[in-house]
Amino acid sequence: MNTIDALLEKIDKAKSLDFGTIFNQSIELFKKVWVQGLVIRLLIMILMLPFSLIMYIPMISMGLFDPETIQNMEDFKPLIFIPLGLFGILFMFFAIVIDFGMKASFYRICKLKDLEEMGADDYFHYLKKPYLGKVVKLSLATFGITILAMLLCVIPVFYVMVPVTLMNVIFAFNPELSTSEIVKAGFRLGNKKWLLTFGLLFVSFILAGFIGLLLCCIGVYITLSFVYLPLYFIYKDSVGFDKKEVNESYGMSYG
User: Which residue stretches of the chain are H helix?
Assistant: First the structure.
């Protein structure tokens, strides 16, 4: 089983990575997992839909029963919008939990396809016991880190986005680590590979968005999962996998 010290040691000793190599590897893996990536995005959208509707029901109801209400919104007292704001924050956190858990499950699928291992495409793998509690804690941690960075103006957001995104893939292959250990490992790997990771994320996002738009916008759902793949290879080439340890960690229970 990987301990945090062993993981951090691997990160510190990680070799230099080549931008072009990782990008090309991501393209090849995308050919194998684009269907699973599409399913992930559609499932996230479906899970978010009920909460989106609930969030707008009060506004829709006011407009249907009294259209003048919408026209006179400036007359509303700010206190009326406090419950909507609180629900909005709750909805945002729920979305982060779903997104974090399903992306971790996608990374697990990526490893299965990349290394041609046996295993089911379990899209909810990390949203079930024994991992759900850890996913909630990590989502809260990433949410808090992002909010703090936003309060410190825009520049810190660009810095923390790299460690925060790497926490997802680190958790996917080290679910036995504690929340604080995964956060620590995310920042350690993020600091070491920040420029490479940011560059790959930026180029992958632009490429996925451009190709998605060429496919009549709806294609974005197909191409968006490509953005996740460079992170998988950054972890794979920096830390690597111990097959025995990873398989054992999938079968153990963690709080």
Answer: 4-12, 19-65, 67-71, 82-114, 132-151, 155-173, 179-192, 194-214, 220-223, 229-238, 243-250
